[in-house]
């Protein structure tokens, strides 16, 4: 094979990988040469600095943030969630301020946009809803208009089973996850929302085992987490070939670095600490039989839906106007949810062949990734001295990476605990025990306490 | 979701002002564009503003939507083809500029696809553009997706696209995006039946060669290995559901006692290789033949666990169906599975037809020979704890198992020679590679997997077992980062190996001599460090199972063992009551040993569970019982797991939670049939026993119980001593650590003092040296001056002398 390589016969990819490994090795050697006291100093999580960096972002942003102007609820989420993981409280006034801002991003027809006046978008809706969940309290939670959000979700539903990110926008696995996670926390997982999602997501699983953004695409960490989490949320993870998924995810963890890469033969990146690391707690909770038995993926006929979206979205919104109203009427009448399933014959409940909701949220096995190595990568290679976390040594910090490095750290610390809500032993926390972050919900990525608060709030509220 | 803001550190004021002005501009522009969007203002100026905004930030998806509306609007007003094309070309230009700014923008790519579907743009131009992009960023998944889109529009052949992937692979064989694309294209080609079978096999052979070159060039590169996994999956047959085991054994006799309690009832059990649904009287025919005719025998099938509609294990209670029969009835039942369609799984319908028959004799309790095991008044002795009375079955005993062990023929399509040869060739290739690169982890992993596949297909039983285990052991050493994964893999392989054949099983069979002369058969899968079990289908017959001293975290799958009576899972790593959930589906289980596990070692906020979440569903019935336990902590999992069981003996000693009085009392409440808890009779009251030594001497119904109690106390004492010793050791260690810490501290202090002292000393030293140098320099200067003066004087003198001499000469 004619391989164009560098001076030493390596491909470009391999050269980059070697360079990064060298960088990490320098850090690790510096670490290894220190004394024990030195170690615990180096492995400390610089809480104050990170919190300072985050708080600064919530009150004032530099001009370079123009590029994120269509993602302002995301900024809120990344910062608020990072602060919540660090155990920091934001003061009440600031909280009110954020709630006020987010409600200005809300579209009158439902859903949140990237900023005031922008069209509603599924990803920013996820960000806005979970920002409000993270702020918590009746004021923040009551500002979410459930019925309108259901309307929006149904408008975005595509006949292929997936969701469009926004009106006339693209369909991909992100859409499925953000829609399902929002529907889950707002107690809106109704048959028309769920219908076809499992088929769509499983059509995106590739032969490697991971999940790509759309049918035919290469497996990718972010999409794999989104796909698996969405299917676990609707109890249909058995549609995936889980042993293959596990095999793919396990080997995304770098041998030298300890962090995760997003795709085969790419460099590690701090944010995949969550996207890839977050896959493992989900696999730890699923019943064993799903992980023993694999199916062989074959690529079926291209299921990419036709491009004439104007028609399809009109169709969907018609469906929405019928279903959402009738569904809510049913809830108001005090009928329980399974009665609605029976009424709605158009969308029968999915025949889930192995219902694992009855298995408890207990980790059924050891984490199959190296939790210590991941924590080491985050603490040694991703922390920026001035606060904030980054992709890899040599890159600049930002809020996105701060949020997902910290989320990944929390996942790694709690993976050795025995269940979602058990406190980990000191030995499973790398560095001083003070590094322990708040636990994050592995399916929604919000702090556990806030998740339960929201759960109670929305399961007891009647729709507005 | 992958937007990456960059923070810029400390800009200078001028630049900051410039940036601020830019931000203000951007904000104003955004306002204007959103305004135009609301007003449906599609003027030329508005479109220009929009383009400017998108060039600055392609992420503003609202602006892309505005452009879609504008384009639709413009196209409607134009009839001329050329004019329409120019509108679209203009759009492509705007998108191109936006992509220059950020070629990961979802909105921009989506808009481009939308424009292309009008069919008026030049595809060649698109291909050229894309080529440029994929050269600068070969892994851009938007780019690859766009290429798939173009191929679809252009109706390019798979062959054409395959050529492109091989070009990219040749440029950089680490480019996995190209490998992936290749696999998708080849699958499509195959599924569309575009090529005939022989060509396909040839194509696969070529792929094997390609990938072999890749991993021989660089064995550490992941691309080739993941591609090889796909190739293998195309070569080896996917698993199809089949019947893996059943009970009662073919040709056996079952005596059914209608009056006996539940646990001696008999069920028919079917075990499938994958979860299936649709097992019912329609799909499973059960008939009995009498002298006159053949009639249907109605069995009602339920799956285990019974809360789902698909499962690997299905059972039917014989007693329910025999109620109408008289005692003394003797029947031969013929069971046939798979003759009629209807049993299906995710992978498709059941493969193969299976038949078996057994004799059923209905008895009533007056008939001797049944029900003698009903009363369990003595504790069960565990084979791991009590050496007497247990002995290994001799090899010849293997035949004893013949009856109970269920062996199903595997219904495999006969492998074509090509497939078998390919598998063997790949095994050889991996061995060859490992000869060159001894520690190549991918090579070892691949070889292990190939050998497993070969094992499954080989007609003789499992020739590679030891080699596979060796490979996994070495992998754990070479690549500790992924050690947990290797550990699990090798554990479940080992377990399936043990259960795979009669020969392997008989090594693990022990018999125990009961006091009444009966023999019990124990399966002992102990001391193997298993972290995971696996398939239980072949063990349905097991009544006594010893899993002592492994590394189990969960007992999932054990619900298949519907005849289990005694289970020993002591010395494992079970860490919560909920990990025992699967055993709550075992109706006959009487004695459970879970000593020395880790239940309760992790503090858990149990209240949290009481709110239903996506992953947990605590039954409402439990909330009623909460009221009863206001005083202490509620272990509601105990009710969840144990309340449907009929355990008579439970050993929980050695778990952190076992010291809790509340836990014990709730256990006793949840298990009404419980007689023995940690070897002490429940009715005696454990707490009293511990607090009041006198309780030891209260009249005890049987003498052997006192003995037992004494030995129990002795055991406790010994353990107490051990714990004390451990505590002391720990304390010693703690104090030594503390003293070491102190020593370290002092050492460090001393060291810092030394450093400080050396520093001052060297500073002083330097100062004196500087002084000395200054002095030396000044003295030198002085010297020089003197020298100069001397020389000057000499010069003067010389002059004078010269003048004098000149004078004299004159």
UniProtKB/TrEMBL annotation, chain A:
<dbReference type="GO" id="GO:0097354">
    <property type="term" value="P:prenylation"/>
</dbReference>
<comment type="function">
    <text>Catalyzes the transfer of a farnesyl moiety from farnesyl diphosphate to a cysteine at the fourth position from the C-terminus of several proteins. The beta subunit is responsible for peptide-binding.</text>
</comment>
<comment type="similarity">
    <text>Belongs to the protein prenyltransferase subunit beta family.</text>
</comment>
<dbReference type="InterPro" id="IPR001330">
    <property type="entry name" value="Prenyltrans"/>
</dbReference>
<dbReference type="GO" id="GO:0005965">
    <property type="term" value="C:protein farnesyltransferase complex"/>
</dbReference>
<dbReference type="GO" id="GO:0008270">
    <property type="term" value="F:zinc ion binding"/>
</dbReference>
<dbReference type="GO" id="GO:0004660">
    <property type="term" value="F:protein farnesyltransferase activity"/>
</dbReference>
<dbReference type="InterPro" id="IPR026872">
    <property type="entry name" value="FTB"/>
</dbReference>
<keyword id="KW-0637">Prenyltransferase</keyword>
<dbReference type="InterPro" id="IPR008930">
    <property type="entry name" value="Terpenoid_cyclase/PrenylTrfase"/>
</dbReference>
<keyword id="KW-0677">Repeat</keyword>
<dbReference type="InterPro" id="IPR045089">
    <property type="entry name" value="PGGT1B-like"/>
</dbReference>
<protein>
    <recommendedName>
        <fullName>Protein farnesyltransferase subunit beta</fullName>
        <ecNumber>2.5.1.58</ecNumber>
    </recommendedName>
</protein>
<feature type="domain" description="Prenyltransferase alpha-alpha toroid">
    <location>
        <begin position="47"/>
        <end position="446"/>
    </location>
</feature>
<keyword id="KW-0479">Metal-binding</keyword>
<dbReference type="Pfam" id="PF00432">
    <property type="entry name" value="Prenyltrans"/>
</dbReference>
<keyword id="KW-0862">Zinc</keyword>
<keyword id="KW-0808">Transferase</keyword>
<comment type="subunit">
    <text>Heterodimer of FTA and FTB.</text>
</comment>
UniProtKB/TrEMBL annotation, chain B:
<feature type="coiled-coil region">
    <location>
        <begin position="706"/>
        <end position="747"/>
    </location>
</feature>
<comment type="function">
    <text>Catalyzes the transfer of a geranyl-geranyl moiety from geranyl-geranyl pyrophosphate to cysteines occuring in specific C-terminal amino acid sequences.</text>
</comment>
<comment type="similarity">
    <text>Belongs to the protein prenyltransferase subunit alpha family.</text>
</comment>
<keyword id="KW-0808">Transferase</keyword>
<keyword id="KW-0677">Repeat</keyword>
<dbReference type="InterPro" id="IPR032675">
    <property type="entry name" value="LRR_dom_sf"/>
</dbReference>
<keyword id="KW-0175">Coiled coil</keyword>
<dbReference type="InterPro" id="IPR001611">
    <property type="entry name" value="Leu-rich_rpt"/>
</dbReference>
<dbReference type="InterPro" id="IPR002088">
    <property type="entry name" value="Prenyl_trans_a"/>
</dbReference>
<dbReference type="GO" id="GO:0097354">
    <property type="term" value="P:prenylation"/>
</dbReference>
<dbReference type="Pfam" id="PF01239">
    <property type="entry name" value="PPTA"/>
</dbReference>
<protein>
    <recommendedName>
        <fullName>Geranylgeranyl transferase type-2 subunit alpha</fullName>
        <ecNumber>2.5.1.60</ecNumber>
    </recommendedName>
</protein>
<dbReference type="GO" id="GO:0005968">
    <property type="term" value="C:Rab-protein geranylgeranyltransferase complex"/>
</dbReference>
<keyword id="KW-0637">Prenyltransferase</keyword>
<dbReference type="GO" id="GO:0004663">
    <property type="term" value="F:Rab geranylgeranyltransferase activity"/>
</dbReference>
């Amino acid at each position: 094979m004619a391989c164009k390589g560098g001076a030493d016969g390596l491909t470009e990819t391999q050269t980059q990988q070697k360079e990064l490994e060298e960088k990490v090795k320098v850090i690790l050697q510096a670490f290894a040469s220190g004394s024990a006291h030195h170690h615990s100093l180096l492995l400390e999580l610089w809480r104050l600095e990170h919190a300072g960096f985050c708080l600064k972002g919530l009150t004032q942003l530099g001009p370079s943030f123009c590029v994120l102007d269509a993602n302002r609820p995301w900024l809120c989420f990344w910062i608020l969630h990072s602060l919540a993981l660090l155990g920091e409280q934001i003061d009440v006034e600031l909280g009110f301020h954020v709630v006020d801002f987010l409600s200005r991003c809300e579209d009158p027809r439902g859903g949140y946009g990237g900023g005031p006046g922008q069209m509603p978008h599924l990803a920013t809706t996820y960000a806005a809803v979970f920002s409000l969940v993270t702020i918590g309290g009746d004021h923040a939670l009551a500002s979410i208009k459930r019925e309108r959000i259901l309307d929006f979700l149904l408008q975005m539903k595509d006949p292929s089973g997936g969701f469009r990110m926004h009106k006339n926008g693209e369909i991909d696995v992100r859409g499925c996850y953000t829609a399902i996670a929002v529907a889950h926390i707002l107690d809106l997982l109704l048959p028309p929302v769920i219908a076809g999602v499992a088929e769509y997501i499983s059509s995106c699983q590739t032969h490697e085992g991971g999940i790509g953004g759309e049918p035919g695409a290469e497996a990718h960490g972010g999409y794999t987490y989104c796909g698996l989490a969405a299917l676990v949320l609707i109890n249909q993870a058995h549609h995936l070939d889980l042993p293959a998924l596990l095999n793919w995810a396990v080997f995304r963890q770098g041998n030298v670095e300890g962090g995760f890469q997003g795709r085969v033969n790419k460099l590690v990146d701090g944010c995949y600490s969550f996207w890839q690391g977050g896959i493992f707690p989900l696999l730890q909770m699923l019943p064993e039989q799903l992980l023993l038995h694999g199916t062989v993926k074959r690529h079926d006929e291209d299921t990419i839906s036709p491009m004439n979206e104007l028609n399809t979205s009109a169709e969907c919104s018609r469906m929405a106007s019928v279903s959402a109203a009738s569904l809510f009427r049913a809830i108001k009448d005090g009928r329980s949810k399974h009665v609605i399933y029976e009424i709605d014959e158009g969308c029968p409940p999915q025949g889930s062949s192995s219902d694992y909701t009855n298995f408890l949220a207990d980790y059924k096995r050891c984490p199959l990734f190296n939790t210590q190595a991941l924590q080491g990568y985050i603490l040694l290679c991703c922390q920026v001295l001035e606060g904030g976390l980054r992709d890899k040594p040599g890159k600049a910090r930002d809020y996105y990476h701060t949020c997902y490095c910290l989320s990944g750290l929390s996942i790694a610390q709690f993976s050795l605990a025995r269940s979602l809500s058990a406190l980990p032993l000191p030995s499973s926390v790398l560095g001083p025990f003070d590094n322990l972050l708040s636990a994050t919900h592995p399916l929604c990525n919000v702090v556990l306490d806030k998740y339960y608060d929201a759960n109670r709030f929305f399961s007891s509220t009647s729709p507005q | 979701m992958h937007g990456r803001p960059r923070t810029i550190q400390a800009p200078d004021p001028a630049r900051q002002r410039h940036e601020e002005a830019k931000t203000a501009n951007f904000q104003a522009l955004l306002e204007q564009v959103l305004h135009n969007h609301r007003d449906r203002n599609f003027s030329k100026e508005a479109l220009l503003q929009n383009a400017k905004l998108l060039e600055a930030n392609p992420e503003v998806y609202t602006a892309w939507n505005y452009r879609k509306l504008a384009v639709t609007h413009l196209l409607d007003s134009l009839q001329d083809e050329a004019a329409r094309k120019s509108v679209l070309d203009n759009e492509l230009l705007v998108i191109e500029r936006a992509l220059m700014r950020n070629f990961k923008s979802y909105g921009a790519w989506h808009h481009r696809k939308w424009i292309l579907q009008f069919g008026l743009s030049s595809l060649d131009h698109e291909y050229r553009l894309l080529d440029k992009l994929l050269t600068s960023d070969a892994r851009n998944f938007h780019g690859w997706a766009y290429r798939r889109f173009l191929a679809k529009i252009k109706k390019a052949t798979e062959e054409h696209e395959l050529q492109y992937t091989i070009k990219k692979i040749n440029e950089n064989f680490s480019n996995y995006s190209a490998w992936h694309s290749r696999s998708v294209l080849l699958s499509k080609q195959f599924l569309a039946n575009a090529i005939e079978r022989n060509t396909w096999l040839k194509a696969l052979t070529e792929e094997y060669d390609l990938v072999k070159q890749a991993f021989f060039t660089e064995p550490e590169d992941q691309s080739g290995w993941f591609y090889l996994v796909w190739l293998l999956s195309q070569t080896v047959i996917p698993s199809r559901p089949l019947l893996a085991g059943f009970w009662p054994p073919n040709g056996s006799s079952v005596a059914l006692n209608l009056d006996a309690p539940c646990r001696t009832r008999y069920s028919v059990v079917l075990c499938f290789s994958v979860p299936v649904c649709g097992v019912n009287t329609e799909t499973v025919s059960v008939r009995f033949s009498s002298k006159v005719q053949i009639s249907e025998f109605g069995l009602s099938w339920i799956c285990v666990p019974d809360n789902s509609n698909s499962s690997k294990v299905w059972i039917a209670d014989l007693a329910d169906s025999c109620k109408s029969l008289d005692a003394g009835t003797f029947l031969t039942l013929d069971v046939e599975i798979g003759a009629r369609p209807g049993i299906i799984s995710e992978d498709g319908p059941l493969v193969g037809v299976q038949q078996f028959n057994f004799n059923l004799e209905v008895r009533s309790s007056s008939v001797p020979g049944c029900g003698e095991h009903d009363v369990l008044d003595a504790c069960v002795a565990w084979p791991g704890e009590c050496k007497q009375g247990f002995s290994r079955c001799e090899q010849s005993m293997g035949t004893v198992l013949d009856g109970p062990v269920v062996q199903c023929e595997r219904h495999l399509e006969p492998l074509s020679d090509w497939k078998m040869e390919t598998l063997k060739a790949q095994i050889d290739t991996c061995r060859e590679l490992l000869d060159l690169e001894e520690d190549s982890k991918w090579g070892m992993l691949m070889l292990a997997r190939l050998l497993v596949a070969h094992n499954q297909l080989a007609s003789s039983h499992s020739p590679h077992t030891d080699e596979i285990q060796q490979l996994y052991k070495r992998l754990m050493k070479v690549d500790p980062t992924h050690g947990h994964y290797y550990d699990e893999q090798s554990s479940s392989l080992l377990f399936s190996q043990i259960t795979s054949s009669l020969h392997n099983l008989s090594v693990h069979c022990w018999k125990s001599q009961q006091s009444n002369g009966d023999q019990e058969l124990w399966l002992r899968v102990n001391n193997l460090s298993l972290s995971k079990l696996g398939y239980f289908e072949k063990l349905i017959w097991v009544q006594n199972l010893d899993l002592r001293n492994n590394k189990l975290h969960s007992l999932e799958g054990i619900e298949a063992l519907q005849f289990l009576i005694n289970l020993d899972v002591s010395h494992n790593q079970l860490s919560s009551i909920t990990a025992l959930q699967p055993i709550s589906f075992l109706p006959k289980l009487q004695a459970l040993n879970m000593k020395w596990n880790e239940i309760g070692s992790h503090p858990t906020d149990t209240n949290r569970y009481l709110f239903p979440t996506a992953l947990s569903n605590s039954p409402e019935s439990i909330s009623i019982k909460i009221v009863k336990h206001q005083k202490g902590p509620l272990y509601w999992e105990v009710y969840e797991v144990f309340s449907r069981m009929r355990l008579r003996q439970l050993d929980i000693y050695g778990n952190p939670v076992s010291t809790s009085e509340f836990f014990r009392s709730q256990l006793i409440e949840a298990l009404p049939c419980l007689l023995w808890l940690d070897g002490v009779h429940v009715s005696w009251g454990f707490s009293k026993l511990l607090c009041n030594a006198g309780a030891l001497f209260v009249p005890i119904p049987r003498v052997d119980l006192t003995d037992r109690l004494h030995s129990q106390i002795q055991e406790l004492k010994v353990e107490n001593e051990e714990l004390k010793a451990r505590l002391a050791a720990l304390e010693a260690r703690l104090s030594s650590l503390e003293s070491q810490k102190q020593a370290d501290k002092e050492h460090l202090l001393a060291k810092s003092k030394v450093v400080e002292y050396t520093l001052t000393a060297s500073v002083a030293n330097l100062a004196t040296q500087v002084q000395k140098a200054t002095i030396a320099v000044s003295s030198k200067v002085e010297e020089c001056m003197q020298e100069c003066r001397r020389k000057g004087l000499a010069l003067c003198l010389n002059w004078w002398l010269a003048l004098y001499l000149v004078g004299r000469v004159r």
